[in-house]
Specification:
Shape: elongated
Order of helices and strands: HEHEHH
Radius of gyration: 13 Å
Strand content: 5-15%
Number of helices: 4
Mean pLDDT: 89
Oligomer: single chain
Low-confidence stretches: none
Distance between the termini: 24 Å
Number of domains: 1
Length: about 60
Amino acid sequence: ALHRMLQERGLRQRVHVQVDGGINAATAPVVIEAGADVLVAGSAVFGAEDPAAALRALRSR
């Protein structure tokens, strides 16, 4: 609904949709498919035992 509203108002190219909270390797593809442009995955990365591996997992999705 948000993307449709932005498109109808001609704002989609100027507005980035950011999702902050609940982002991990499983949820990232879902919110990207829903139209998110920017993901904030603080806990998923910085709370992981291996932050570099967690970041790679997110990027590979």
